[in-house]
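Workshop exercise sheet. Pairs work together: one partner reads the sequence aloud, the other fills in the structure field after running the prediction. Swap roles for the next sheet.
Pair: D.N. / O.F.
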Amino acid sequence: MAMVCLSDFEAYAKKYLPKIAWDFFAAGADDCSTRDENILAYKRIRFRPRMLRDVSMMDIRTKLLGTEISFPVGIAPTGFHQLAWPDGEKSTARGKRRDDVRNGFRLPPHMKVKNLEGAFEGDDCSEYGLPPNSLDPSVTWNDIYWLRSLTHLPIIIKGILTKEDAELAVRHGVQGIIVSNHGGRQLDGGPATIDALVEVVEAVQGRAEVYLDGGIRKGSDVLKALALGAKCVFIGRPALWGLAYKGEEGLREVLRILQDEFRLSMALAGCASVSEIGRHLVQFSKL
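Structure field:
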C-alpha cells in the first residue's frame, strides 16, 4: 500500500490496530465536536499566494528557543505509544472517552504511567480510566513558580486557549505556550486551536514563543498556522498512525510527507523561507 498522505496512515491504523487501541487514540470528549472542529477550522482559512517570487532556493528551517530544527513540525506529548508499536515512545524519540468506557479500556500489564506507578493496582478506575484522585484539582498558576524553582530548563505550558491565560502564562515567566485543546479529548465545545491561535499570539506580543497542536493533517495546515503566528506546530494522532504503520520508520515517513508538503505549499504561496511567512498570507473565508 502506497502511503502518499497522512490520511493513508490513518486508514492503515484504523484497519490494523486492535479496536480498543484505535478507539482510545481516535476518541474525543463527549460528542467529539471539538476534535472534529480542530480539522474543519483549517478549511475556513484561504491563502493569498504571491506570484513571480524567486523560490529556487527554499529554506524551511526554524528555531525553537534558540535551537535550530529542520522544519517547524514536532511531536506532541501524547501518551501510551506502546498501544501503537511495541517500542512505544522509544521509537518516537529516535484520560479516556466514551468508546474507552464502552471497551473497558485498561493499560496492558507491561505499560506503566511513571508518575502514577502503583496507583493502578486496585480495581477502581472509574474516573475515565484513572484511579480516583489521580489528578490534583488544586493546581494553580502559582505552581509555575514552584516549577521554576526546581529547574533552569525553559518552561512551556500546554493547553492555553484564551488571551487571558496567555497573559497569565507570560506574567508567570514561561518561555513557550502551546495552544492546545488536547486533541479535543477534554472539554467538548471549546474552540479549534487554529481559531484560538490568533488571540493568544496577539496577547503574547512576542514575549514568549507560541506553538500549536491539533488538526494538522497537511503541509498546508502547517503553513496556515505559521501565517497566523505559530512558531512551530506539533502532531499527535498522525505520529501514532505512523508508529502503527512501521514504528520508527513509519513515523519518519509521516514527517517526510509533511515536510515535502510544507515545502511545496511555501513555494506555491511565494515564500522562500520561514521568515517570509506572515499574516498577509491568509484570510478567513466568509462562508
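Discussion prompt: Strands lie at 45-47, 62-64, 67-69, 73-75, 156-160, 176-179, 209-213, 232-235, 282-284. What would you look at next?
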